[in-house]
Amino acid sequence: MLYPHGGDTLSYREAYGRDPIDFSANLNPLGTPPAVQEAVRRSAALCAAYPDPFCRRLRRALAEHEGVAVESVLPGNGAADLIFRLAYALRPARALLLAPTFSEYETALTAAGCACSFHYLREEDGFCLTDSILPRLGEGWDLVFLCNPNNPTGQPIPRALVEACLARCEANGALLAVDECFADFLDEPEAFTMKPFLAQHPRLLLLGAFTKLYAMAGLRLGWCLCSDRDLLDAMERAAQPWSVSTPAQEAGLAALGETAFVQRSRELIREQREWLRRELEALGMRVYGSQANYLFFRSPLPGLGERLRAEGILLRSCANYRGLGPDYYRAAVRLPQENEALIRAVRRCLERKEGD
Q1: Before 156, cis peptide (omega within 30)?
Q2: Which one of 206, 228, 255, 353 has the lowest number of neighbouring Cβ atoms within 10 Å?
Q3: Does pTM surpass 0.90?
């Protein structure tokens, strides 16, 4: 069975008998904060009872942390869960997505019977979204999905452009969903987030997750923000009962207090992202302007991903993204020694190619 995402280290272990350095999953290289790990350990004593189906404590804490009304917050079993809930609650007939972008938007919408169309990002624009999307927003969509910064390109969308998209969507009766799961890794996340617009714009929905910043992928915890309470109620009805476990709720509460950890993570990733960018470019890779915790690049060396697997390194091939091919890759920004190992391995692959 072909796994469509990164992070499949178990398949690698079965094939090679060892663990790889995993650059395919774009998680915080510092790992899960100790306070979160401790909260999960303590939660074991609470697991005999059902989890709070309404995530009341977590919902209140998220509202305070995000600066929004508690009624506008809906936690879920990861952002992917909420994407599927949105698709089943809204039941849109037609949706507009970017290409390339996160594949679960299309997967969820197609499962809900929605016809998806695509606005292709152009390589000559550095895979940045431009105002060329604005005329398309009047084509009768029920839902428009943006990812900011985009996955896999890492390119942020200026807030002025997202505002213009929102205005077009509202004028044409469409809901604008903006996935901000990687916004915390931006140098100035407050300059890009659409949270200040939520209260006055019920046709705006935002997605966030604990997965990436707090390295909580195995716990499955995300949230969405929207001032349309009827839509959030419909999304709650579209979920399985007790969809957010007690350990996940306790972990989320602990994570929200980890402000020093977040600052340290941003500083590390900013420094290592620029180092990794320079080194990849020096080796002939075309690196695009990612501002997230991963780099998106095009390799001149055919089969780079498979060559690196033999070296004990996993990259995220972007061949299964719409609009991309097998020479595009996404690499997470990891710890300095791991980033150095990646560069050494790429250099060896290039040298072997030259010797062929």
Answers
A1: no
A2: 353
A3: yes
